[in-house]
Amino acid sequence: MAGASVMLTAMKMFDAHCHLQDPRLDASLGDVMQRAKAAGVSRMVCCGTTASDWRKVALLCARHSELVPAFGVHPWRVNGMSPSWFDTLTDMIASEPSATVGEIGLDYSILERDETLQEEVFCRQLQLAVALRRPAAIHCRKAWGSMMRILAGFGGLPEGFMVHSYSGSAELVAPLVKLGAYLSFSGSITRHRNTHGHAAAAAVPIDRLLIETDSPDLAPVKDGSPRTGEELNEPANLIFILRTVARLRGVQENELAERTWNNAQRLFLAGNG
User: Fold this and answer.
1) Containing domain of residue 249, as a range?
2) Per the confidence metrics, is the pTM higher than 0.85?
3) 119 prior amide bond cis, ω within 30
4) For a tag on the chain, would you pick the N or C end, based on fewer CB atoms within 10 A?
């Protein structure tokens, strides 16, 4: 066990997508950050989802150097936005040299949705990523046809993009990669019956593979132990996602940690340290 502990702390991992500004983590955030450090999670992309949380993301990233900021309007949040939302978003991203445009995207799985408005907001944010030469963090659920049409219309993005918590098919991996995508896997990949996700994780080229927690949601299965349904996720749990993806791909955990670290650095921090 001592050897396993040394190996765990020696690995350097990059959580490519989380939401540490979530109010559910406020009371425990100091402990969350300490546990992340102890687990070897040395970088985390903290993603905003609406104008009301962008400032909180910026403050957290200023306080914790291991956090990388991202600002965007999530497809669940497109209704009721301020008329000035786009100007505010532009200012937020322009003022943060390492900021990603995200979390943005399409979600046709929600019952009360305006697909036209989702697409409009998504396209404006993609245009911003192009104009400011920033990567994008993209959410997509049950909207793959529309997503591919829109991304193909852009011809990809000059600074690349990540599809977070990837839930598409293995067959869609190659077309997405051709457009410049990195594909990230979250706690859902640890579910034993997620054969769809397992096939996709094995199909992603190693230089386009990322891992994430999507904290505080999508808590992973921990070494076979069932989830309670009430458990809050946190970056320290990234090790369980790493282990699963390493097993699916037949590689060593430390090798996968290094490759996904390098991939995330290249996407999110090229030119920013």
Assistant:
1) 2-269
2) yes
3) no
4) N
77 to each of 41, 48, 86, 102, 127, how far by Cα in Å? Answer: 29, 11, 13, 12, 19
List the pLDDT tens digit at each of the 273 positions of the chain. 334 444 444 689 999 999 999 999 999 999 999 999 999 999 999 999 999 999 999 999 999 999 999 999 999 999 989 999 999 999 999 999 999 999 999 999 998 899 999 999 999 999 999 999 999 999 999 999 999 999 999 998 999 999 999 999 999 999 999 999 999 999 999 999 999 999 999 999 999 999 999 999 999 998 666 565 668 999 999 999 999 999 999 999 999 999 999 999 999 998 553
Place of tokens 């790493």: 242
- What CATH number corresponds to the domain at position 29? 3.20.20.140
* Structure-block tokens of residue 54: 């962008």
The alpha carbon of 142 is separated from its chain's Cα centroid by a whole number of angstroms, namely 18
Residue 211: closest CA among 258, 141, 148, 170: 258
Place of tokens 């999507």: 214
Q: Give the count of domains, the chain.
A: 1
